[in-house]
Amino acid sequence: xxxxxxxxxQEGTGNVFTAADLLWTIQAIGSTAVFLYVSWMCYxxxxxxxxxxxxxxxxVIVWLRSVFVMMVLLYLIVK
Length: 79
What we know:
The protein contains 3 helices and no strands. By secondary structure, the protein is mostly helical.
């Protein structure tokens, strides 16, 4: 961001926060949402395994896929 753009952004927000603060907030919300979704997926897979709906192999596959997707998404969000 050019200095003139940064100054215009800060003036537009009333000097409450900077563009970097806004970016950090968006990244924090996105990362939290991704983490909660993966946690929910792992929990549901464990519940399905406990009820006998899926095998242990299927549960582990869901866990690995979820963690892989989380790693990719967090890389893209935070990068």
